[in-house]
Amino acid sequence: MPDAPAEIISRRFVIAITAAVLLAAAVRAPFLTDGLWYDEIAAFLGYSINGPWGAVSTYYTQSNHVLHSLLAWGSGAALGVDEVTVRLPSFLVGLGAVLAVAWLAMIALGRDAQGVRLAVTAAFMTALMPIAVLPATEARGYSLMTLFSALMTAAFLRALRSPTRTAWLIYAAACALGIWAHLVTMCVPAFHAAWCVVVLLRGAPSTPGGTPPKAARAGLMAIGMAALLTLLIYAPILPAMFAIRNEFRALDGNEPTLLGIEGLMMLLSIGGSWNAWASLTALPLVLAGIAAATRDARLRTALLLSLGGAVVALAFPLFLGSWLYARFLAFTIPGIALLLAAGLLEINDRKPIAARMVALVVASAWIASLATLGPRQQIREAVMYVASHRSPTEGAFAVGLPDDVHQWYAVPLRVDMPGSGPYGSALEQHLRDPAAAWAVLLYPRTLTAAAEQLRAAGFVEEARFPGWIDAGGGEIIVLRRR
Fold it and tell me: What is the rounded CA–CA span in Å between residue 49 and residue 71?
């Protein structure tokens, strides 16, 4: 009988975490059948379709998130290729991220009641936050960034407190796999390295529980090991990455800036959503979480190690001539979940009724923002529109970026729809063809010159298909020659 309370707590914990995972699955599942957008198609057709070696040894564009390309190949080979199977790895990884964030919370505060409460609350935050839901519903590497950033930070904290070779090896492996999923994940171990350097400069900790210099030295060695593992798994494509190194620089002039919409979305992420009104509803949780962290050194350390990589990431646009999208910061999602969860518990400890009201408002806003979001990019719908409205004698073509991603849907529909070269470079040959009566224009905000050419040749807008990806830049216009 004396052990019964512990068993009850354990059973309740398992039930609560299971409920969080099931909720995560229910929220994410409706997005899996949406039409694929440009990057998803380009990555699969460019890399995954060529088999496992093609996925890990080929790199001619940045659309290859190598680990995800490998997993997408496996999913497609086992289950067939469609929208759901291509996204299945990210979906499953997204569910795993719920568990990983819970583990991070337990490592941060311990396995006592406080740690259990934070773990359960953070798991539900991860299940519902739009910034966690959306990466887990597209065939890209961002969901893997979230999973491995949670695992590496948890492993780092655990190894600092109980340093063993196995603990540091787990940490190094998590770092390498996270970076294999997306290069920007390197910001997490980079900040951890900076943390270790600061610890060494300070010397022996002045408070109980602080990080001793010996652990910091071991941490730096583990980060060095992670760097070697990363070089090893990237070895097949390092020459190709070097060959296209200029693609990592902001040379085209149309890359996102910190002072633009993507920078705003990065700020809004702290509220769990890229939607302004949905994010602002979580502001009380953000403020309460910060207040909680000022009093709890363990929570403060976990938050710094989880979110500090964002500071490193800012160096790319500020000092290295590169750029960032808000989705590149998917590695901050575990830290944001911890912050918001800590904030909710802080409010609950003081005013339980207020905490329930805030939780209800925030959850409702997040769900409403997801429910009203719409598709990322409607390539499928645009191609189907042309297929159903053109006559047998009318030809069609597409104008887009370097990859002819529209063929993913045009070929199964038996619509002969050639591309027009990168950024419409070969558009003129289609305009000279009198049978070419339909045009599908992707990224009209980017391809303004091509849009003007089409209109000058007598093409008028027939239908418009909005898409929220790239801050609305993912919309598609179908034009018909009059």
Answer: 11
Please give the model's pTM, rounded to 2 decimal places.
0.94
Question: 91-148, pLDDT tens digit by residue?
Answer: 999 999 999 999 999 999 988 889 999 999 999 999 999 999 999 999 999 999 999 9
Number of C-alpha atoms within 13 angstroms, CB side, residue 345? Answer: 25
pLDDT in tens, 32-47: 999 999 999 999 999 9
Pairwise CA distance, residues 311 & 290, whole Å = 17
Give me the amino acid identity at 44: F
229 touches 168 (CB < 8 A): no
**Cβ contact 302:157 at 8 Å:** yes
Q: Using an 8 Å Cβ cutoff, are 63 and 39 in contact?
A: yes
Locate 316 and state its tokens. 């790319």
Measure CA 271 to chain center. Answer: 16
Largest CA distance in the chain: 86
Residue with token string 């790239």: 470
Task: Copy the structure tokens of residue 203.
Answer: 């010397």
Enumerate the CATH 3.40.190 domain ranges in the chain, comma separated. 379-481
The Cα–Cα gap between 452 and 446 comes to 12
Q: Is 128 exposed, middle or buried (0-12, 13-18, 19+ CB in 10 A)?
A: buried
Handedness of CA 67, 68, 73, 77 (dihedral sign): positive
DSSP one-letter code for 396 = E
Asked if 383 and 463 touch (Cβ cutoff 8 Å), the reply is: no
Q: How distant, in Å, are the alpha carbons of 75, 352, 360, 379 from that of 344?
A: 38, 9, 11, 40
Question: What is the token pair recorded at 368?
Answer: 């409403």
Q: Look at the domain 379-481 and name its fold.
A: D-Maltodextrin-Binding Protein; domain 2 (3.40.190)
pLDDT band at 321 (very low <50, low <70, confident <90, very high): confident
Position 369 confidence tier, pLDDT thresholds 50, 70, 90: very high
User: Which of 163, 154, 173, 162 has its CA nearest to residue 223?
Assistant: 173
What is the β-pairing status of strands 459-465 and 476-481?
antiparallel
Q: Which residues pair with 476 in a beta bridge?
A: 442, 465
The pair of structure tokens assigned to 37 is 């957008």
For residue range 253-268, list pLDDT tens digits in order.
Answer: 667 888 889 999 999 9
Considering only CA atoms, which of 315, 318, 327 is closest in space to residue 181? 327
CA distance 279 to 264: 11
